[in-house]
Specification:
Blueprint lengths: L8 H23 L5 E2 L13 E4 L6 H9 L2 E7 L2 E5 L14 E5 L14 H14 L5 E6 L2 H9 L13 E7 L18 H6 L13 H7 L8 E7 L2 E3 L2 E3 L20 E5 L9 H6 L14 H9 L7 H15 L8 E8 L7 E2 L2 E2 H20 L7 E8 L3 E8 L4 H6 L10 H11 L8 E8 L9 H14 L2 E8 L4 H13 L4 E4 L2 H16 L4 E6 L5 E3 L7 E10 L5 E6 L2 E2 L5 E5 L5 E6 L6 E7 L5 E10 L14 H28 L27
Parallel strand pairs: 1-3, 2-5, 2-6, 6-7, 7-8, 8-11, 12-15, 12-17, 17-18, 18-19
Antiparallel strand pairs: 3-4, 4-5, 9-10, 13-14, 15-16, 20-28, 21-27, 22-26, 22-28, 23-24, 23-27, 25-26
Helix pairs in contact: 1-16, 10-15, 12-13, 13-14
């Protein structure tokens, strides 16, 4: 019997087609789309949210960040081998209010390892590009693998680029970063993963060995007090009793005590070190299957490691980052540094009488109160770094004190000043604006103008508002104005316009109590949400209600500003006194009291007055900082990596088997009615199965 169109070559062609379909499907599933870049990115979509900058670890995961975090990538900037990518609507947030997200990578879209390292210069370059799009100039770094050590070097001022001079990072998240060094290379030195893992940060494998000079240097440094640190510990599999992401053990990621001023939050996630790296091949040589005879890793563990998702694709990584973001950054852009310039009027009119003293001496007292309040605030743990400068003016203006972290210098400079000459407010404000050139770029900048408001020479009011005041507004400098003594209606209006033009406030300085109160309020509102802001009559008030503390609070901070000597207070929880040993308490020479409780226990808190010591009134502020990650692993959901992969493979298998079955049926139903291969097919005439394999 001769054959019809269903000859012996047909099954081979069908098999090849099936294989190609399966390979194509597998490639799509396993690799995802490459780094297809869209048109250049426009302005940020969330200008009042802290942007997130992901530092790619260098093992080719950038394309997976695009796939699973972005949806589509747009290139913001490039320099040499480094690329900064973003998206107009990041999909990782899964809801409204998503922060702008960026990826800094030196990998190509094909998923190859890094073409260059991500070190301190590259991080600075990326942050500068982000700052061009976000005027606040601050970001959260999410560092994968060894690039977390580069982030630490930048934040600890160990590179040529100093973060302290920029103040542009508010959060650090590390994905499997070997802060304590890599343990596994000591047992398995020949694996091919160690060199590229280290090279992603411009390092050698020896730099990642526990006790290396690099790690000793990092452990001797300090992370900024204002940086919130989260470490995600990948646990994809256990090699015996050692939990690992395929590169770092869980314990390898622990940061040495003292490096972070605040608590470091650790969360366990089920993820492997890289989505692109073939860890089953890497570890195969250590198994019996791979022919190794020493330090055998179980084949089953290697199989599970291959199925686990990488940090770039694991949904629990994105969920933990979102929870961290909402816990610390949901209320806006945090303060990383406060730069203040006091602009002090020393013109002749300041010698006028003011109650029992003069305006000049009253101003000195106000500045002394300011210095004491700043010193007391700086003494608290995790306080925001500050600098203060002093501009003295009459018909001229002099930067008498450049920005300094020592507020006591204000008293020394003002001690010998005499009031004389005319008043040029415009020249004073211009000098103060220029003096901010030495302040950290991302610092919150404030100017406090102490004057009686009588501008006599130089620019008129309109010129001042359109000149130095407009310049201050453009540079993000807020101006608060304080009138010392009773001034005329026109001067009150002028000082009010200066303040309101820059988002500041006007104050009538009737006494130093109000000045200290307003300063503390401004400082508290700049670093968080104030939960209590109330003035109390000490002759009638026995206690003040504080914010209720729930599980996960990190810090309860309280400030009390009296109008006289410092009053004595006791912090109470559920009616019982809190142990004073757990309270950090600081009282300034001028009576400002600040109290801080680290990790306060849940309960109802009050501030009980013990002794007013002659003060008649006081203003109480309190704020609570939340902490969503105090318990290790509390935010890590069950891993579904293997399940999802099995589902995908199952669907692929069903599709392929369906194609095979359909093709086989077509082959089996090819018929003939005669020996003529061109003869028409008759109904029900089947080609015998044995004829398919030849005679």
């Amino acid at each position: 019997m001769s054959r019809t169109q269903g000859d012996a070559r047909y099954p081979k062609r069908a098999l090849m087609a099936h294989v190609l379909v399966l390979c194509l499907f597998g490639a799509i599933v396993a690799c995802g789309p490459s780094l297809a870049l869209a048109t250049p990115a426009g302005p940020p979509t969330s200008p009042n949210r802290v942007p997130v900058v992901i530092l790619d670890g260098g093992l080719g995961d950038a394309r997976f960040y695009v796939t699973h975090w972005f949806g589509e990538a747009q290139e913001v900037a490039s320099s040499g081998s480094q690329h900064l990518l973003t998206t107009s609507a990041p999909t990782w947030w899964a809801g409204s209010g998503s922060p702008d997200t960026y990826v800094l990578t030196t990998s190509e879209g094909s998923g190859t390892v890094a073409a260059g390292p991500i070190g301190v210069p590259e991080i600075g370059w990326a942050l500068d590009r982000v700052a061009e799009r976000h005027p606040e100039g601050k970001a959260i770094l999410v560092a994968q693998g060894a690039t977390g050590l580069s982030a630490r070097a930048y934040l600890e001022d160990l590179g040529t680029l100093k973060q302290s001079a920029r103040a542009d990072v508010v959060g650090l998240v590390m994905l499997g970063t070997p802060n304590a060094g890599l343990t596994l290379p000591g047992t398995y030195p020949g694996l091919d993963v160690w060199p590229p893992f280290a090279a992603g940060a411009g390092l050698a494998p020896a730099d990642l060995a526990p006790g290396s000079s690099l790690l000793v240097s990092l452990d001797g440094g300090r992370l900024p007090a204002v940086v919130r640190t989260l470490v995600l510990q990948g646990v994809a599999v256990s090699f015996g009793d050692r939990e690992t992401d395929g590169v770092a053990l869980r314990g390898d990621s622990v940061i040495a005590t003292g490096v972070a001023i605040g608590a470091v939050d650790y969360v366990t996630v089920k993820a492997r070190a890289s989505e692109s790296w073939a860890f089953d091949k890497t570890w195969l040589s250590t198994s019996k299957r791979g022919g190794a005879t020493l330090n055998v890793v179980a084949d089953q563990a290697i199989d599970r490691l291959a199925l686990a998702r990488g940090y770039s694709t694991a949904p629990d990584v994105r969920e933990a980052l979102k929870k961290y973001y909402e816990a610390w950054f949901a209320n806006g852009v945090p303060v990383t540094h406060i730069s203040t310039r006091l602009v002090f009027d020393v013109s002749g009119s300041m010698s006028a009488a003011w109650g029992s003293t003069t305006k000049l001496d009253g101003g000195r007292a106000a500045v002394s109160d300011f210095a004491s309040a700043m010193s007391a605030r700086q003494a608290l743990p995790s306080s925001v770094p500050e600098d203060v400068g002093l501009v003295l003016f009459n018909q001229g203006a002099t930067v008498a004190l450049p920005g300094t972290s020592d507020p006591s210098a204000l008293r020394r400079v003002l001690g010998s000043v005499k009031a004389q000459g005319n008043t040029d407010v415009g020249k004073a404000l211009s000098a103060a604006v220029k003096s901010f050139a030495d302040a950290p770029g991302a610092s919150d900048k404030f100017m406090i103008l102490l004057s009686d408001g009588l501008n006599t020479v130089g620019l008129d009011e309109t010129g001042i508002l359109k000149g130095p005041v407009a310049s201050a507004k453009k540079r993000g400098i807020r101006i608060d104005t304080i009138a010392l003594g009773t001034v005329g209606t026109s001067d009150v209006g002028f000082l009010t316009k200066i303040a309101s033009s820059t988002g500041g406030t006007f104050h009538q300085a009737r006494d130093t109590f109000e000045l200290r109160r307003d300063f503390i309020r401004a400082r508290y509102s700049s670093v968080g949400t104030i939960g209590v802001d109330v003035e109390v009559d000490l002759s009638k008030t026995g206690s003040v209600a504080l914010p209720a503390i729930t599980t996960g609070a990190r810090l309860l901070e309280i400030a009390v500003v009296p109008d006289g000597p410092a009053a004595s207070w006791q912090v109470m929880r559920d009616g019982s006194a809190v142990d004073t040993a757990s309270i950090n308490s600081v009282t300034s020479p001028d009576g400002v009291s600040l109290l801080a409780l680290q990790s306060p226990k849940p309960g109802t808190y009050t501030l009980k007055l013990m002794d007013a010591h002659g003060s008649r009134r006081a203003h109480v502020f309190a704020t609570v900082q939340a902490d969503a990650f105090r318990q290790t692993g509390s935010s890590a959901p069950p891993d579904s990596s293997a399940t999802l992969l099995l589902i995908v493979f199952g669907v692929a298998a069903v599709l392929v088997l369906g194609v095979v079955a359909f093709t086989s049926v077509r082959g089996r139903t090819r018929v003939t009615s005669s020996d003529d291969p061109a003869a028409p097919l008759g109904e029900g005439q089947l080609l015998p199965l044995e004829d398919e394999v030849g005679e």
